[in-house]
């Protein structure tokens, strides 16, 4: 998929399939026949209906679950916004390949295939306090790369990212889309108070410098985002078109997909927030986007780790739905009317 311009991408973000509502309703009807008080599995019941709707089948499956970790480097690291040096991004890509990162362990436990896509990690984006992070063609190429990585026939996609400095890019996108600055600033990898001040200062400068384009979610994502964030946006768009439900990870991932929610009121209906991270702005960003996280474990890592943990919960929800007996089959008496 190639997007020729911001406008072409905007059209693709506004013309979205609605999923198979009948499949979701069929799940809800079956849930009510199973041997439990109606609704007693709470959100697990909704999750199965959600899978059915977006996979487009009455009996959803979780056989092919994939985690894609997108990696990118950020010029804004020159402003001292991370507790770690930017070389860590490429070093972690090597660590993913060697199986040594947290996401390698969590993907294995979740029964998910892990793919790592490096988006020119040796070539950082421009420092967005001085110039747009990406030109229009660069941004669109990263979106297209993300789009292409989503294969047909996946049952679930977990988004992940690696990019030193990217909590600053994410905060800048949140500031552009939802206003304010300070409420989006957090400690990321663990910056001290001076580091927090440098993050806020960088975003203040960027908001002034790019002010004219920040009303447009896509131009904002190009001006102050990053390649791995653009790729996550592209992957989420592809998933919508290819019948693949999506688990969103932490703050960075949520900011990355926010433009789709801004461009279409139901643009993120096929995506669920797997967790709320400990990054200061994440809970607020989820509320602003009307997303209700599944887990709250105080995690603040990224890499798709929160998304991967939630796969286990989806598997549990689906096991109940598929494996439970109905009242009729099990000879269990129904609720007295
Ligand atoms: C060793 C290491 C592994 C990571 N895995 C994810 N991140 C996370 O931290 C980074 C964002 O935080 P900031 O904006 O403060 O740089 C991203 O790379 C994110 O994925 C990591 C960070 C480090 C240091
Ligand atoms: O919530 C996140 O996405 C996050 C938090 C801290 C560091 N990296 C990512």
Automatic annotation (TrEMBL):
Q: What class of enzyme is it?
A: transferase
Name the source's superkingdom: Bacteria
Under Enzyme Commission nomenclature, its number is 2.4.2.21
The record's annotation in Pfam families points to: DBI_PRT (PF02277)
Q: Does the keyword tRNA-binding apply?
A: no
Molecular function (GO) terms for this protein are: nicotinate-nucleotide-dimethylbenzimidazole phosphoribosyltransferase activity
Q: What is catalyzed by this enzyme?
A: 5,6-dimethylbenzimidazole + nicotinate beta-D-ribonucleotide = alpha-ribazole 5'-phosphate + nicotinate + H(+)
Q: Which GO terms describe its biological process?
A: cobalamin biosynthetic process
Q: What InterPro entries does this protein map onto? A: Nict_dMeBzImd_PRibTrfase, Nict_dMeBzImd_PRibTrfase_bact, Nict_dMeBzImd_PRibTrfase_N, Nict_dMeBzImd_PRibTrfase_sf
- Report the pathway entry: Nucleoside biosynthesis; alpha-ribazole biosynthesis; alpha-ribazole from 5,6-dimethylbenzimidazole: step 1/2
The entry's active site is 303 (proton acceptor)
**Keywords from the named record:** Cobalamin biosynthesis, Glycosyltransferase, Transferase
Q: Which NCBIfam families match?
A: cobT_DBIPRT (TIGR03160), PRK00105.1 (NF000996)
Family to which this protein belongs: Belongs to the CobT family.
Q: What does this protein do?
A: Catalyzes the synthesis of alpha-ribazole-5'-phosphate from nicotinate mononucleotide (NAMN) and 5,6-dimethylbenzimidazole (DMB).
Query: PANTHER family per the record?
Result: NICOTINATE-NUCLEOTIDE--DIMETHYLBENZIMIDAZOLE PHOSPHORIBOSYLTRANSFERASE
> What name does the UniProt record give this protein?
Nicotinate-nucleotide--dimethylbenzimidazole phosphoribosyltransferase
